[in-house]
Amino acid sequence: MATLALLQVFVCAVSAYVLAGGRLGGLAEKPPGTAASPKPTPVAIVTAGPVLSPAPDGSLPGKGTLAARLTRALGDPALGDQVAVTVLDARGGTVLFSSKADTGLTPASTTKIVTAVAALSSLGRDTQVATRVVQGGGRAITLVGGGDVTLTSPKAKPGYPEFASLATLAARTAQALKAGGVTSVTLTYDDSLFSGSRTAPGWKPGYVPEGSVAPVSALTIDEGRLVPGEHTTARYPDPPKSAAEAFADLLGRRGVKVSRSIKRAKAAPTAKEVARVESPPVYELVEHMLTESDNDLAEGLAHLVALKEGRPGTFQGGAQAVEAVLKRLGLAEGISLDDGSGLSTRNRITPAALARVLAYAASPGQPQLHSVVSGLPIAGFTGTLSHRYAKADSRSAAGVVRAKTGTLNGVNTLAGLTRTADGRMMAFAFMADKVNDPMGAIAALDRLAALVSGCGCS
Q1: What is the pLDDT of residue 314?
Q2: Which of 95, 140, 170, 282 is most open to solvent, judged by the fewest CB atoms within 10 Å of its CB?
């Protein structure tokens, strides 16, 4: 009965917040013309309020008591013998607790936090990524990849955000061709925007076969998944070719015959655009990337940052460009990258760097970065934290902590934001990269975050 009563109070509070027009950290509403989500996620909207609330911060927690609690929790043997930690006041920057905070450890997917900040800063939050069809001489058309790895096939189920559709592109292309009297074409595909290796330094050979990530390409559908939406499904060995073949089939269904031979070819600069579709804006892509820990999207965004920053669209170009953007923001110290997703075992980031980046993204003076915060999974509710924070020693942090998880063999990390019991916003990063008990390490990291969120003592 007590639980039901608390749930009723929570639902009433949620309704009042939504009716009052609550938004995430003062971010602008979805740009005009962007399709509405068929399945909105109100929990993510409502629980973000306390994190970026404009209300004055509470008192700063006492260093001594917080340090004592965290030190005891860090003694958990499940974390292994290489653990580094930072907890700092997100508004003032005061470090409240640190242990090996300037030691660069393997960050795993917490790397996506810095990729997100770089993408929003370089590409712009409202930028959309186009996939195009262009027409050369006569009946020759080319499907041109623009780096939108979220482009969907008809097999994909609708969700949020609403990604660009290959079927829509085919329909628009067929309509334009028929209007010009063309009902049969030769088709080529252009994936030349991204270059170099399709896998990053430090990626293990099993990543692609096991479905952790697809070979990175500027032209792909369903993130290269054979079964859209299945995170552990096999991936297409040649994503751009598979995308082109699917496009040819869709054109055929709409009355445009495509020649059997479909080859890779770079589109002529003078080719006329026939049709296009565009991705959701970057801020929605960033939110999705962080909430779902989307490796493919992270690598696509990093490659696009490389191009925007005048570098090659490669893994090296992406890593260098992300670091350059962070340097421009004064945030590059302690960050060394080889990819954008965190799958590379060669990446090194310090807890101090992660906490600084998070505090910067949450700053009232950086509204263009607030989708980094709104994209962080919510403890016990969304994304990679949806099934965590259910144990007695961490349950108090459910709905309060927002954090990005990181998991590789032997690596468990957690970095995010929370408010203390007194209302002070904290940025934290907990990193362990010599873990022998991954489930125990996950529970230990959750306890650490719960200690920060529950601290209200002087």
Answers
A1: 98
A2: 95
**What pLDDT score does 233 carry?**
77
What is the distance between the alpha carbons of residues 417 and 396, in angstroms, rounded to a whole number? 15
Cα–Cα distance, 377 to 245 (Å, whole number): 36
Task: Dig out the tokens for 37 from the structure.
Answer: 């989500």
User: Which amino acid is present at 259?
Assistant: S
* Measured CA distances, 266 to 59, 130, 189, 263, 277 (Å): 60, 16, 7, 10, 19
What is the per-residue pLDDT for 234?
85
Cα–Cα distance measured from residue 240 to residue 249, given in angstroms and rounded to the nearest whole number? 14
Structural element, H or E, at residue 87: strand 83-89
98, 242, 293, 374: which one is catalytic? 293
Catalytic one of 98, 112, 241, 242: 112
pLDDT of residue 32: 35
30 has catalytic annotation: no
Establish whether 257 is a catalytic residue. no
pLDDT for res 56: 52
Q: How far apart are CA 221 and CA 243, in angstroms?
A: 6
Which residues neighbour 17 within 8 Å (Cβ) at sequence distance 6 or greater? 46, 49
As averages over each run of 10 residues, the pLDDT of the chain (458 residues) reads 40 36 30 39 40 59 81 94 96 93 98 98 98 93 98 91 97 97 97 97 94 96 89 86 97 96 94 97 98 97 98 98 98 98 98 98 96 97 96 93 97 96 92 96 96 72
Active site residue 112: yes
DSSP of 112-181: HHHHHHHHHHHH-TT---EEEEEE-STTEEEEE--S-TT-B-TTSPP-SS---BHHHHHHHHHHHHHHTT
DSSP per-residue string spanning 190-203 = E-TTS-S-SS-TT-
What residue spans of 314-390 are helical by DSSP H? 315-328, 351-361, 370-375
pTM over 0.90: no
Backbone angles phi, psi at 239, to 5 degrees: -55, -45
- Sign of the Cα pseudo-torsion (384, 390, 391, 393, in order): positive
User: pLDDT value at position 16?
Assistant: 38
Catalytic residue among 98, 109, 122, 165: 109
SS3 347: coil
pLDDT of residue 57: 65
Angle between helices 111-123 and 315-328 in degrees, nearest 10: 80
